[in-house]
Design brief:
737 residues; alpha+beta; Methanol Dehydrogenase, Chain A; 4 domains; 11 helices; 15% helix
């Protein structure tokens, strides 16, 4: 006992010393500060303290943060630092990789379908896989008259691209080609192949037969994993998985190199998903041999005490030498992301005019509505930006970044900071319902979470989503579909270690809970579905209000005062019967956990902000200006009430063509639409049988142009799931005009 008292005393003294030294270390050597905090946390754990309680005396000091300059200006690349454009190699006449090609352009140079005839588009064929119903988020590829893509039943299939007739199917381990696949035409030694990731593997299939290529890893697969379409440079296939980017020999599957995206502290154990994942995709500059990878946020989301620091390669665009994996440069958007604001989409390789010269660049759209425009070779921004001082956290042990970036050009394509003026005005009732939720919430620019208090902000599911943007090389314009709805997120202070005596029966409050609450919130209070967990971090007055008056989809609970009192005691662990070995809370400690993902909604279930809630945007990368913005999708019942088109949440992604069109689906109203790419005017739409939650592909077979996409519903927007691919074309007479 005496020994432990000494150890605890040492721990407290170390925390006091660290607190006094923090301002100097944060300014002069944040890396050393990170290491000290990490080792101190490990020491605290060995003494039986949870990390949160060990760090409770190291809450950030707002006075220290306020002493920093409010803004720091970051210059753009000078003219001498810009990379002159090379003559592009892409012809944009085929669709051999998800997102179109190695540059992820989602652009087709085909011109048969135009502004003048798009209204005549009709269904060419519908393919049903017949192996289940589930959401598909993959953009199919087409080569030599054959379409390749995943199915709802977790097969990869080859389909005749002109008729929709199945040619072959293959069942890998896991969920194949979740967000993309690649057709490789072969070389003198190897015939054409299909490459994709599935489960923990990278697969290589014979493109003609669907049989695994036995020479690749010995069985047609190698350990890799990941979800996005790979890229190929010479003899190297580049793959991004949970925390790494890897290079493999295209023939044998031998691993050639590996780049780690996020350093793994020992305290994280063997959990492979620690963040900085590549969820959206990659791109490849084939002439320069550079692979570009977009990365997500560090994990866990919403609490950052175990990934202190700026987490350098998370929320970043990372450029690697494709042949060797050597890091060339990286550019980070959000530092130490605790809001789950990933860079979710594939980079677009673009060419823009700067200072009268054509410059090769990377355009990267993000969840918070930014477009990062970076030089391809140096990674330097083409437009200047600013770092703005960010607020501190009230979360024990949290260390927010002192600054977060502000980009003025290219112009943001969504709202980036929630304010009360954003509250919906759809009706007085809707406004009042949302205002009540926001009244006691935090909001503002990069506002961190307070324990038990909700925080409202934009961007959790975009801004941009995994589908990203389409790039038109004719005009240097970027077309991006976006969400613009607020979320309300809470981080709860959860008590751990308090124990109920298992020999005692349920308390009166527990019985009330089982009868009135457990069906939705779970017998263990951990929540079910959209019903949040009820374990710690709650505000008692809020809980009482919800029980009495209801909230969102939860109705009021008719309880007498005595029942309500004992229920509250149970929820807040005040009715714990102590065990014989000591007081109930002698070993109680605290953790901090998110209370799930909740959209801020009005009383009718519509987003709680003013419309538009979903948009399609055209951005001129030469000027950085938004050329046009139009609502994407509608709620027909609101339109009938005379409300201007609001747009809806959407997960489709745009595709642009030389015929002057932008195709986009993914809206809640289950339509695919065609827009004039110069004006944003809607020219055609078609009601799909299910949601089309992946971008369209554009291709030609035997002189006829087609537009095709996965139509399977489900996913983040829910709705009835399906199993289809649908292709559109012009009537035969129109196709040959």
């Amino acid at each position: 006992m005496k020994h432990r008292t000494t150890q605890v005393t040492v721990l407290v003294l170390l925390i006091v010393v660290l607190t006094a030294s923090r301002p100097v270390l944060e300014r002069e050597n944040p890396v050393v500060l990170h290491k000290i905090e990490y080792r101190l946390a490990r020491y605290a754990r060995r003494l039986g303290f949870h990390a949160g309680s060990a760090r409770v005396t190291t809450i950030e000091d707002p006075r220290e943060r306020a002493s920093l300059p409010e803004y720091v200006d970051m210059p753009a690349a000078t003219d001498a630092q810009l990379t002159p454009a090379l003559t592009p190699v892409e012809q944009h006449l085929e669709w051999t990789r998800s997102h179109g090609d190695s540059t992820s352009s989602r652009y087709s140079a085909l011109t048969q379908i135009t502004r003048d005839n798009v209204a005549s588009l009709q269904v060419a064929w519908i393919y049903h896989s017949g192996d289940g119903k589930a959401n598909i988020q993959s953009n199919p590829v087409i080569a030599e008259g054959v379409m390749y893509g995943p199915t709802a039943g977790k097969y990869v299939v080859a389909i005749a691209a002109a008729t929709g007739k199945e040619i072959w199917r293959f069942k890998p381990i896991g969920q194949p080609a979740l967000r993309g696949l690649l057709y490789w035409p072969g070389n003198q030694a190897l015939h054409p192949r299909i490459y994709f990731t599935s489960g923990d593997y990278l697969y290589a299939l014979d493109a003609k037969t669907g049989a695994p290529e036995q020479s690749f890893g010995g069985s047609g697969k190698v350990p890799s994993g990941g979800v996005v379409a790979p890229v190929i440079f010479q003899n190297v296939i580049v793959v991004a998985n949970w925390n790494h980017v890897l290079g493999y020999d295209i023939s044998s599957g031998k691993q050639l190199w590996q780049f780690e995206l996020l350093e793994k502290p020992a305290a994280w154990g063997e959990d492979p998903d620690r963040g900085a994942n590549c969820w959206g995709g990659m791109a490849l500059d084939e002439q320069r041999g550079i692979a570009y990878i977009s990365t997500g946020s560090p994990h866990p989301n919403f609490v950052g005490m175990d990934h202190i620091g700026e987490n350098k390669y998370a929320n970043s665009v990372v450029a690697l030498e494709a042949a060797t994996g050597r890091l060339l440069w990286s550019f980070q958007e959000i530092r130490h992301d605790i809001w789950d604001l990933d860079i979710p989409a594939p980079p677009n390789l673009v060419t823009v005019m700067r200072a009268g010269k054509r410059v090769d660049a990377v355009a990267q759209v993000t969840k918070i509505g930014n477009t990062l425009l970076l030089d391809r070779v140096t990674g330097k921004p083409l437009y200047p930006y600013r770092l703005r001082r960010a607020p501190v956290s009230a979360m024990p042990g949290e260390r927010t970044s002192p600054y977060q970036p502000v980009f003025q050009l290219p112009e943001p394509f969504t709202r980036q900071e929630f304010t009360p003026s954003d509250i919906t005005d759809l009706s007085p009732e809707a406004h009042a319902f949302v205002a009540k939720q926001v009244r006691n919430a935090n909001y503002g620019w990069f506002k961190p979470f307070d324990p038990g208090k909700p925080t409202v902000y934009y961007g959790l599911l975009g801004g941009a989503q995994w589908t990203g943007a389409a790039y038109d090389p004719e005009t240097s314009r970027l077309y991006v579909s976006a969400n613009d709805v607020p979320w309300i997120i809470s981080v709860l202070r959860m008590r751990i270690g308090a124990k109920r005596d298992p020999r005692q029966g349920p308390t009166a409050g527990e019985l009330v809970y089982r009868n009135s609450c457990a069906e939705c919130h779970g017998i263990d209070r951990k929540g079910k579905g959209m019903a949040p967990q009820l374990r710690g971090g709650l505000i008692e007055t809020d809980v009482i209000d919800v029980i009495k008056n209801g909230r969102s989809s939860m109705p009021p609970i008719a309880l007498g005062l005595d029942q309500r009192t004992v229920l509250i005691d149970f929820i807040f662990d005040r009715d714990i019967i102590p065990q014989e070995n000591g007081p109930a809370d002698a070993e109680a400690r605290y953790d901090y956990i998110p209370n799930g993902y909740q959209t801020l909604l009005d009383d009718q279930g519509y987003p709680g902000s003013k419309p538009p809630w979903g948009t399609l945007n055209a951005i001129d990368l030469n000027t950085g200006k938004i050329v046009w913005k139009t609502p994407l999708g509608e709620y027909p019942e609101l339109t009938r009430r005379g409300i201007p088109k609001t747009g809806t949440e959407n997960f489709g992604g745009a595709t642009v063509t030389a015929g002057g069109l932008v195709f986009c689906a993914g809206t809640r109203d289950l339509k695919i639409r065609a827009f004039d790419k110069d004006t944003g005017r809607e020219l055609w739409s078609y009601q799909l049988p299910f949601g089309g939650y992946a971008p369209p592909s554009v291709y030609s077979v035997n002189g006829r142009e087609y537009v095709s996409l996965a139509v399977t519903g489900g996913g983040k927007l829910g709705g009835e799931p399906g199993d289809a691919y649908v292709a559109f074309t012009l009537p035969e007479s129109g196709a040959h005009k």
